[in-house]
Amino acid sequence: MVYLAKIFKLNYIFSMNKIMQIYEKLFEFYGPQHWWPAEDKEEIIIGAVLTQNTAWKNVEKAIQNLKAKNLCSLAAIFEIDIEELKDAIKPAGFFNQKSIYLKNISRFFKEEGGIEKLSNFQTEKLRKKLLNVKGIGKETADSILLYAFQRPIFVIDAYTKRLAERHKLTEKLDYDSLQRLFTNNLPKDHQLFNEYHALIVKNAKEFCRKKPDCKNCPLKEFL
DNA sequence: CACCAGGAATGTA
DNA sequence: TACATTCATGGT
Question: Which nucleotide does the CA of A53 lie closest to, via C1'?
């Protein structure tokens, strides 16, 4: 029974919790989101840093600048002069810090022998290694784990927090509590976690930014 | 003009 | 542990 429930497309057979119901509603409304929007895993990792507290639109410009200079890889970022790196990522903001963060991450992957080697580590071990890199916090680490390494780790962001708040999914709104909430109420499926987080972002951008438009939101019935 | 965006590090009590 | 501050560009 529990095993069958892991096949999330059949989960409706069993009693669906609120977390799962919200996912079903979002997926029904928006369909698959095809995240992470990037050509390869290294671009995901780079984008994960660039998007820290930054509109994705600006990250896209920075990524394009990097690609135009053949800098959109960890090896290239490791080698390039940091001032030139700053110049390329400038549209994404916080370029003084992010240039250092990207250098740190590129050095980390170099020292660890690349993505292939790191793929051999268990998820929790890999997560701790990522968190040791200055510039990678919980959300960035989890984004990399989920979208680049395909690990079943649920990403919590400001949108997820606001969703849990508005729909009264829980009392405790800190990162770890929210992550446990979603993890404990969903089948541990990386593809499901992938879509769910992307759908939360999609929905927030469409109905919650600026003037909240709750009457047309697919989640209005859960308020 | 103010406010926010797919956060994290650092400092304070 | 629990908040407050700082970082910076570009869109609304």
Answer: B7
